[in-house]
Amino acid sequence: MSETNIIGNKNIIDVIKYRWVWLTLSLILILPGIFAMVYSTITLPTHTPLKVGIDFTGGTVLQYGVNQSVDNNSISKLRQALDDNNIESPSIQIINVNTANDVANPETKADIQHIISIRTKFIDEKDVTSLSKVSSAVQKDYPEAKMISVNSVGPTLGKELYKNSLIAMGLAFIGIVAYLTIRFQLDYAVIALLSLVHDVLFVLGVFSILGLVYNVEIDSLFITAILTVIGFSVHDTIVVFDRVRENMRFLAKKASFDEIVNASVNQTLARSINTSLTTLITLLALYFFGGVTTKDFVLAMILGIAIGTYSSIFFASMVLAWHRDWDAAHKKGISKNAEAVV
């Protein structure tokens, strides 16, 4: 894979030669997630590509700490007890407590092994009767269960947050397109945006699959993670494209565009990998040693930064070179046709 490039350095990777490998890998990474999002849109009650939490749909989540093991049979009994108490559409999730940070109440940390998280339709905090029914159902099988937290979001507020999140993502895309169009030539900007869509689709697809398989729901923190990933991905791609543009000024007459892209990618390779690795080390520490409440947020960041690094090195540069090759061949074909007509 290693060969001398036009600047005299050794090429660690050959992006252009193995372009079909990178394209195939991108399709393998993205297509399963796209299928999962389409399936989720059709089958989920909310008709959204990902399972959305109470931040966007409205509802109430009650969490109880228990000091004994929880199995599937116990969950089935609990769900039946909730139904008997007229608690509508309960969704139950069991969270393993790994660290003290997983529990909000310091007084109960030492006694808790698992957290039973129950999501149901919106329950007003003043509705003591409904809250008591949930607690009674839980304490029927877990007498020592302790309520850790109650979080409620009204249906109207949930819809407003969902709309504002979509607006925020849309404005981010518009701003990036405007900046890239001013900073680079149009084809650079379009391909950088395509690379950005590539990265976002991968993260969304993974969480759509996690939602179907493990009942993972997204919240407002997930939108924050996506916006951060967008910024990181664009920054990484701009670094590579900037080097391509600089090399074009001095080497356009000495080498082909493919050779310039290869050289530029290899010049920025160490910087891209080192920057990403330092960030990923921090995020991995947060994922394994942080609290449960931030795990999904950190996971989205890890996936986004990893795919952003990959796409800036292999996907964006490969597509840029591919486009320029096609454009040159297209212009050459037009020129020959014009000469034939004359």
If you compute it from the alpha carbons, what radius of gyration comes out, rounded to the nearest whole angstrom? 26 Å
Low-confidence stretches: none
CATH architecture of the largest domain: Up-down Bundle
Percentage of helical residues?
55-70%
Average pLDDT for all residues: 83
CATH superfamily of the largest domain: Multidrug efflux transporter AcrB transmembrane domain
Structural class: alpha+beta
CATH topology of the largest domain: Multidrug efflux transporter AcrB transmembrane fold
Query: Which word captures the global form?
Result: elongated
- Whole-number total of structural domains: 2
Name the helix and strand elements from N-terminus to C-terminus, one letter apiece: EEHHEHEEHEHHHHH
Number of helices: 9
Give the termini distance in whole angstroms.
Answer: 46 Å
Query: What percent of residues are in strands?
Result: 5-15%
- What top-tier CATH class of the largest domain fits best? Mainly Alpha
Strand segment count: 6
Multimerization status? single chain
Strand order of the largest sheet: 4-5-3-6
How are the SSEs placed, and which strands pair?
Blueprint: E1 3-4, E2 10-11, H1 19-43, H2 54-57, E3 59-66, H3 72-84, E4 91-96, E5 114-120, H4 128-141, E6 146-153, H5 155-183, H6 186-214, H7 220-251, H8 257-289, H9 295-341
Antiparallel strand pairs: 1-2, 3-5, 3-6, 4-5
Helix pairs in contact: 1-6, 1-9, 3-4, 5-6, 5-7, 6-7, 6-9, 7-8, 7-9, 8-9
